[in-house]
Amino acid sequence: MRQTVLIVPGYRGSGPGHWQSWLEGELPEARRVGGIDWDTPLLARWAGEVRREIDASAGAVWIVAHSFGCLASVVAAVDRPQKDAGLLLVAPADPERFELLGVREDPQRSAGVGRFLPQSGLPCPSFMVVSRSDPWLSQDVAHEWAERWGSRLIDAGDAGHINVESGHGPWPLAPSLLQQLRDSAGDLPLGMITPDQRAPLRGRSSALARLRHQTRRFLSLRRTTMPSTP
To answer: What is the pLDDT of residues 132-153, one digit of tens each?
Structure first.
């Protein structure tokens, strides 16, 4: 069966020296999600592009995401349980570091995006790779989300944010973890085992639709509370 490995970078993207770029070059079935402004972390827009790539894939999709890309990927995954075979979530960013319109600069002014993410088990096998010295995610928060999503938590040690700055260019562990994820899925059907839960979520019932609705509301509220220019 034809399969796709979808590479989903995080905030500010993954340049040519990043392990995701290396992995993309190693796997003939890999491609990078497109249509995203990597310097503008808008959860609804990113999740929409990930979901579009999933829909465009001919067969099963394995997602390899990093940082903020992990947050967008889990939103897309719950809407497409029949296509998502598994998620490799590497160094997820703390959802409370972001708001619906980007980086969360003022915690007193807006809420984090955590409440807009899946609050229960993901519809496919998932590994969450975390670092003990990641400036973007604490160990406690990582354990909380891994338990909530039913993800297998993998301790990468003191690995920073698992990016170029922390020395993660060519990273042999990445294809090894992806293969382990594939092996863990085995002969399980894609997505949820219960048939009626495996249908794609569309329209107002989808996670992305709810996220877009809340983003529009937040943008409208932000505009009405902005001080007028004299």
So the answer is: 999 999 999 999 999 999 999 9
**C-alpha to C-alpha distances, 3 to 35, 36, 88, 128, 220, nearest whole angstrom:** 21, 22, 15, 21, 40
For 221-224, the CB contacts below 8 A with 24+ separation are: 222/101
Q: Residue 34 pLDDT more than 60?
A: yes
Question: Per DSSP, what are the bridge partners of residue 88?
Answer: 64, 127
Strands 60-66 and 3-8, bridge-based pairing: parallel
The number of angstroms, rounded, from the C-alpha of 58 to the middle of its chain's C-alpha atoms is: 21
For residue 198, how far is the Cα from the chain centroid?
A: 20
Q: Tens of pLDDT along 178-225?
A: 999 999 987 555 554 344 445 566 666 799 999 999 999 988 877 776
The tokens for 83 are 């296509």
CA distance 174 to 186: 19
Report which of 9, 214, 201 is spatially closest to residue 114, judged by C-alpha positions: 214
**Polymer length of the chain:** 230
